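Why run this: before we spend reagent on co-expression, it is cheaper to look at a predicted model of the complex and decide which construct boundaries make sense. The entries below are exactly what would go into the expression plan.
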Amino acid sequence: MSFEVTILGCGAALPTSKRKPTSQFVNCNERFILIDCGEGTQNQLRKYGIKFQRINHILISHLHGDHFFGLIGLLSTMHLLGRDKGLTIYGPKELEQIIRIQLEVGGSKIGFKIKFVVLDNPEGGILFEDNLIEIRYFPMRHRIPTNGFRIQEKPKERSIIGEEMKANNISLKAIPFFRQGLDFTDENGQIHFADEYSIASKTPKSYGYCSDTSYFEPIIPHIKNVDVLYHEATFLEAMSKRAKETFHSTAKQAAEIAVKAGVKKLLLGHLSARYESNEAHEAEAKTIFENTEVVEDGMTYLVR
Amino acid sequence: MSFEVTILGCGAALPTSKRKPTSQFVNCNERFILIDCGEGTQNQLRKYGIKFQRINHILISHLHGDHFFGLIGLLSTMHLLGRDKGLTIYGPKELEQIIRIQLEVGGSKIGFKIKFVVLDNPEGGILFEDNLIEIRYFPMRHRIPTNGFRIQEKPKERSIIGEEMKANNISLKAIPFFRQGLDFTDENGQIHFADEYSIASKTPKSYGYCSDTSYFEPIIPHIKNVDVLYHEATFLEAMSKRAKETFHSTAKQAAEIAVKAGVKKLLLGHLSARYESNEAHEAEAKTIFENTEVVEDGMTYLVR
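The model came back. Tokens follow.
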């Protein structure tokens, strides 16, 4: 099962030729999720060879243009390419109206069902789950209501060692118990140990997405122990005043959040257009948290 | 004085990596005009090195997404780059609401004045004029209300041959007459001929833009004798039925319009994504009108 994040755009409000507006494509156990959808996202998907009809869930963190202006174009293109499979869009409540009005004026009928799910619980919550994954949202602190996201695999059942069971003539009735890690007592009162007939699956992995937000400790429980955290770092610490005023973070602050949340790897993005290179951000964050990388458009990061 | 058209995008509803959604940048006598603004137009302006703060007029032909989804992003970026100079946007009446609602939800204040001018006169008319240029619009035939545009230089006054006037001791009072091509009779009743003291300026040039439309002869008077005509050619004649159904044109039809309007040069664009190369369109149109060229993103065409 794959779990990986492709950066489609990692720029801030003002895009540059190197850093397009925010969007990420996440494949979590073959569930295909788009997080945010800045202008030109459909173009980036095309450029990096991602089939966008696979996307079933689109999460929009907030309604600043660099996070959603590309949504209407993507939906139109999905329609023109003949999509008939439904799509769910999760985001602020005004989003549906904005999309519907633009389709109406063009006299366009979208040939697939779009379901809008409003994310406005101040406590956050689960926005999607199935047998394999779970996606949660949680409020951050920005100029307008903004959510972060946590995508995680569900704990998997243990794998059965079929040959071992057969060799020892263990009843098939034991399987559900072994899968849960429970020992099994047969009709003769004999105990068979789960450890001997099954092996633990890989630990479930998790990904946290926090853009845009100022330094905001209440997000920590929501991203606790994620394997990979993407946190915005619009500024360097030298501009911490500006970061505070605009409700953004510095590279150092992102690293502090990573340490306090006990994450394994930190990805930084959403760098202001004033920073041409990534080096200063990476260096600043690494003084606090070593396993840091500044992302680039087109790169794919494994969650492991 | 320059008069040139840069193609920022010449694709149809479904953009490709080679042909972006519709947008053109026109410099007519240092008046800077953007015609249509598909998704990613700001990116194309950047790519081709066009300073977009110079743009003072944005003309939107109609409200299909491939002609205006990039407008909101362009306005946001103009604001972020510190624009304070006003901007006028000409288009269908619903456009203002679509733009305003998107700015509102983001809590964004645009730091410059935007004036919306609704183009809904079924006769068309002049949408802008000053001492040097004039821009007209006219309805075409498409699935939703759609306008074409004609941008033209105003006739220029004749240039005065100063040395000749001085040598013959002609009164400065004669200048306004000579500029208009009128002869001047002095206080002694002597006639001085305009031809001898002034020369005619270059003939005013004109550019016509027709996208999107089905074959529609009523546009002909509006684009009569333009030096350069851009006309959509979404399909080839083999798909004329599909062209009719979707209110688009074929390359042959565009060429027929060019002939009937007596234009000097024909540019074809808005090719359906199904056509990878330009050759068939060019060949088809040339059987009717030789001076035809299929445009490409990034190319600049002189109006002369």
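Residues 45 and 95 of chain B are 22 Å apart (CA to CA). The interface with chain A takes residues 13-17, 20-21, 39-40, 42-43, 46-47, 63-66, 69-70, 72-73, 76-77, 80-81, 92, 94, 97-98, 101-102, 105-108, 143-144 of chain B (CB under 8 Å). Bring this page to Monday's planning discussion.
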